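Practice problem: predict the structure.
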Amino acid sequence: MNIQFIIVGLILLTTYAECIMWFMEPNGHKCLKEEIQGNVLVSGEYEVSIASGQKVDFVTTDSKGHILAQKNDVQQGKLSKFSFVTETYDTFEICFISHVPHNTIHGLNQEVLLNVKKGIEAKSYEGIGEAAKLKPIEVELKRLEDLSEAIVQDFARMRKNEEEMRDTNEATNSRVLYFSIFSMLCLLCLATWQVFYLRRFFRAKKLIE
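Answer:
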């Protein structure tokens, strides 16, 4: 039963989609961050409601500031798309930036709809099937093959993370052990020095022979 839960969880992770909506204030700046593994296809769609005279910029960057997708003055009222492939495990940021002209007294809140997909969910198997002239059953088999490969990669990644955590725990335990031994030796040396010091002190005061 536990294995089934793990497999279901991995399927959800490898076929991930997120759809959110919010209202952006005039001259506002809204960013969404997420950590994504390397070599993962990320695609998405976004739509910004119409507000006359206002502009909205869209940009996607990694933690190093590299621009992966960008659109200045997005077309409002229509669906726009973007996609990129991650190179390494990193934190990626999707930002929407509102610009209101200086001569506008009161700006309007704009509704922003964002739908992000990654992994298997981001691939268009219909387009792959049409390009390769595959039958529907062959397209489904291709999707299942990619899904199985993604699950195997996730298992391998989990195993690697477990090994790294185990190595870290073992190294930490060794350092704690050595530090404990060092602390005990220091306390022993301090106690010995204190005994000799007190003996010399009491002898100097002629309290003991």
